[in-house]
Amino acid sequence: MSTALLVIDVQKAFDDADFWGPRNNPECEANIAALLAAWEGPRVYVRHDSDEPGSPLAPGHPGNAFKDVISGEPDLLVTKRTNSAFYGEPDLHEWLQTRGIDGLVICGITTNHCVETTTRMAGNLGYDVRLVLDATHTFDRRGPDGTVLTADELARATAASIHGEFATVLSTRELTDE
């Protein structure tokens, strides 16, 4: 089996706490760096190029750039305007299929949005997916009833929803010790 590391939306805009609110997992970036340092297979970097007015993720905005933790050239750069990396350019699924890649290790930002959506789609497309939960982070969110769910609660909900159905959820240490 051939496996690629998929690093989703690790962009400087997500450092803006005034825009996004409180986040969880301050070790996220260090864990992504550890994955990148240990990874020997293909790497796919995904960048969100927002077309929403005022978005700090818009092309040309300083927040659109990758954080410094993202190093080296990827084997593929996917740009997207939606939550799933499978709806980006170039076509991720086609690129993986033409290279015989049937496994994905996924990390990035944000846990319950682009990371979760991409993970679900990858599982549905038949990939063997491992989601490295401690190499993701998210932000507190207010629900439609006004209740605020903490970033930690949202990350746990993502892990519970994903594990065993769409992916295997594990930690950076578990993956790098394999």
CATH level-4 homologous superfamily = Isochorismatase-like
Instruction: Kindly report the spatial arrangement of strands forming the biggest sheet.
Output: 3-2-1-4-5-8
Largest sheet: 6 strands, parallel
Model regions low in confidence, pLDDT < 50 over at least 5 residues:
none
Radius of gyration: 15 Å
- Per DSSP E runs of 2 or more residues, the count of β-strands stands at 8
CATH class: Alpha Beta
What's the gist of this structure?
The chain is an alpha/beta fold and 178 residues long.
Secondary structure elements and pairings:
Blueprint: E1 2-8, H1 17-20, H2 28-38, E2 43-48, E3 76-80, H3 92-98, E4 101-109, H4 111-124, E5 128-137, E6 141-142, E7 148-149, H5 151-162, E8 168-170, H6 172-176
Parallel strand pairs: 1-2, 1-4, 2-3, 4-5, 5-8
Antiparallel strand pairs: 6-7
Helix pairs in contact: 4-5
Can you put this structure into words, describing what you see?
The chain is of the alpha/beta class. The protein has a single domain (2-176), classed as Rossmann fold, CATH 3.40.50.850. Helices cover 30% and strands 25% of the residues. It is built from 6 helices and 8 strands. The chain has helices spanning 17-20, 28-38, 92-98, 111-124, 151-162, 172-176; strands at 2-8, 43-48, 76-80, 101-109, 128-137, 141-142, 148-149, 168-170. A 6-stranded parallel beta sheet has the order 3-2-1-4-5-8. Strands 6-7 form a two-stranded antiparallel ribbon. Helix 4 runs parallel beside helix 5 (151-162). The longest helix has 14 residues, at 111-124. 37% of the residues are buried. The mean pLDDT is 97.
